[in-house]
Write a structure and sequence with these properties.
By secondary structure, this protein is an alpha/beta fold. The protein is about 45% helix and about 15% strand. Strand 11 (about 565-570) and strand 12 form a beta hairpin. Helix 7 packs parallel to helix 9, helix 16 (about 360-370) packs across helix 18 and helix 18 (about 400-420) packs antiparallel against helix 19 (about 425-435).
Length: about 625
């Protein structure tokens, strides 16, 4: 994407006309425009996006007399697309999979899906690679023409190529003389989830005889300490080309490992150090980055930065409290706390869908306005036959269409149940109730178009973690819902502007290719990083991600892990003990400076009418009156 655009600009300015520069998909698209008729592809083909492909899959399933929920429809589309790639890369292996893995119905769906695309003269993104591969594999004369046209081939980021992309390059470069030059580092292969095959680096010498290998082992970015520490970490991977990273840069500071009591103290440590870097070390906010394994981890950090008045920008995402799924649940809470909140009412009255479109909602609000009713008063009036507290005369409910009234009453029943529940249950439980009774997670599955359901669900769960501080009293108490909503209203970030000098927040994957003077990385706990589900090969991928994270730093790298963290245990969130990431132990102690917080981070157990709960508190468990005392110990 961006790298290809930059390449075009540089080559254009150098006056090298005729060079073909672009992504693999760009290149394959050009080949198919030129010669696609040889594999049955018309020159004026169109490329279908993800939503287009999903619409095709939906029609295929319906034509076969079936019906699938949205999440299963997306899963079927992914499976069909993977089947196409498997068939192209290794037909014999694919035939074995047919017998062992795929069912007859799936093969029929694949066949009909492809028929639908061909009928519309359309390709999906996988087709662009597959048909280009077929073109090169089956037509030697086309290979010959392209070989004459492109005797020099350069591929950047080779470690991020897929098996199919490898084979496309192999076919393009199968004749002498051809100069093929690839640049890559298997230690930075972190996109397996996108189809990248880190073994392509090792396969290169096997596939191309006469290969000369040049090891680029000099690091021009990081200090000696960071380089040596990252080198020691990545050497634990078995599937890599041995190489030793070195640098002529200064030795630099040791890597700081901070052991926090919990989320709150981890965020406080971060703010404290950012202030020190800016105020005492003359660093700019823009040269400070905070990296984390998953997007939901940004919530506690954002809150701390906002409270401290420090400017930040989330790269590649939006602020936690601006994320749709978070705003939806908060809107339910706002409406429960303030029945006159028309903005929140409009947001949630048809979320999830209750058959209330914009026109229906507009007719309801106009009806409320005609009698001077708030949205909540209107709900009560409909439930009570037009009677409204404080009004002598009842209101005429017959002016609302039956369909509108039905949907509004369904919503009113939910709000009534939530209101009663809030009177005797804490805020975290209220969120659970809202999510369950509205079937909100199923709603997220249906509207998720980018296979991000787990991330969306994690954001909802992280919102619940944020409410634990207010969980020692019923939600209807002023110290419950009201206090939480007041805090949320302060959690806005007017400084979130990429043009300003701001602290950069992003996932580890988003940081690839970037560099900063100072890098903080949070959440280095076993189960979070590396993730729980990682097998042996995925552990190596996670370790590469740790390596990439460390080597984003020029001068200082600081990481943290928590002793305790709020995690879902069944249907509840509980404070659980955390183990430090195994990756920390793989860094030699000589490169580390450890710092541990001693004291109390506000997690305590408390008896309530609903059993034992884990809650947040700013009081020490030893005394109801004594404030928390915290010591920072270096060792």
């Amino acid at each position: 994407g961006l790298g290809a655009e930059e390449g075009v600009e540089r080559v254009g300015s150098a006056g090298w006309d005729g060079a073909l520069i672009g992504t693999f998909h760009n290149m394959c698209g050009v080949f198919l425009r030129w010669h696609g008729n040889r594999v049955g592809i018309e020159k004026n083909f169109v490329v279908f996006t993800g939503s287009d492909c999903l619409a095709v899959m939906k029609k295929v399933v319906q034509d076969m007399g079936g019906e699938l929920p949205a999440p299963e429809m997306k899963a079927m589309l992914r499976k069909v697309q993977q089947m196409k790639v498997d068939r192209a890369v290794d037909p014999e292996k694919f035939e074995k999979k047919i017998k062992e893995r795929y069912v007859e119905e799936e093969l029929k769906i694949l066949q009909k899906y492809e028929q639908q695309l061909r009928a519309q003269n359309a390709l999906d993104f996988d087709d662009m690679l597959i048909f280009a591969y077929m073109l090169l594999e089956e037509h030697e004369d086309v290979r010959g023409r392209l070989h004459v046209r492109f005797p020099y081939i350069l591929v950047d980021e080779w470690q991020d190529t897929s098996s199919l992309q490898f084979d496309i390059i192999r076919l393009l470069a199968d004749k002498d003389p051809c100069t093929l030059f690839v640049v890559g580092d298997e230690d930075q292969s972190i996109y397996k989830f996108r189809g990248a095959d880190s073994s392509n680096i090792g396969r290169f010498k096997e596939s191309f005889s006469g290969t000369n290998q040049f090891l680029l082992e000099t690091n021009y970015r990081s200090t000696q300490t960071i380089c040596l520490a990252a080198q020691a970490l990545i050497q634990n991977n078995k599937t890599r080309i041995p190489k030793v990273m070195n640098t002529s840069n200064v030795k630099g500071a040791k890597i700081e490992v901070y052991v926090a009591n919990g989320n709150k103290s981890e965020a406080s440590w971060l703010v404290r150090n950012i202030k020190h870097l800016v105020n005492k070390q003359n660093e700019t906010f823009g040269e400070i980055a905070v990296l984390y394994r998953a997007n939901y981890m940004s919530r506690a950090i954002e809150e701390a930065l906002i409270a401290a008045g420090l400017p930040y920008h989330i790269r590649g995402d939006i602020s936690f409290y601006e994320r749709r799924e978070v705003k939806d649940i908060v809107a339910y809470l706002r409406f429960l706390g303030n029945g006159r909140d028309a903005v929140s009412f409009r947001r949630i009255v048809n979320v999830p869908a209750r058959g209330l479109g914009d026109k229906a909602v507009e007719s309801y609000t106009e009806w409320c306005d005609s009698f001077g009713l708030s949205p909540m008063q209107g709900l009560l009036a409909l439930k009570n036959g037009g009677q409204v507290d404080g009004m002598e005369n009842s209101v005429d409910t017959s002016k609302l269409a039956a369909r509108v009234k039905k949907g509004i009453l369904e919503f009113a029943d939910l709000i009534e149940q939530f209101t009663k529940f809030a009177e005797s249950n804490p805020l975290p439980n209220l969120i659970d109730r809202i999510v369950a009774d509205t079937d909100y997670l199923e709603y997220l599955k249906k509207i998720d178009k980018n296979d991000r359901f787990e991330e969306l669900q994690s954001n909802v769960e992280e919102l619940k973690v944020a409410t634990e501080l207010y969980g020692s009293v019923p939600a209807a108490n002023d110290r419950g819902l009201t206090s939480f909503l007041e805090n949320v209203s302060l959690m806005t970030n007017p400084g979130d502007d990429t043009k300003r000098d701001t602290v950069q927040l992003m996932t580890m994957h988003s940081a690839k290719g970037l560099e900063f003077n100072n890098v903080f990385s949070i959440g280095w706990e076993q189960g979070s990083f590396p993730i729980n589900r990682a097998d042996a090969s995925e552990i190596e991928e996670e370790r590469r991600l740790a390596y990439v994270t460390m080597t984003r730093a020029r001068h200082r790298f600081m990481l943290s892990h928590k002793k305790q963290s709020w995690r879902r245990m069944g249907s509840e969130f509980k404070a659980t003990d955390c183990k430090p990431s195994q990756f920390i132990d793989e860094i030699p102690e000589e490169f580390l400076e450890r710092e541990e917080e001693r004291g109390f981070d506000g997690i305590r157990k408390e008896k309530s009418g609903w059993g034992e709960r884990q809650t947040w508190s700013n009081k020490s468990p030893k005394s109801k009156d004594s404030e928390t005392t915290t010591r920072i110990v270096k060792y």
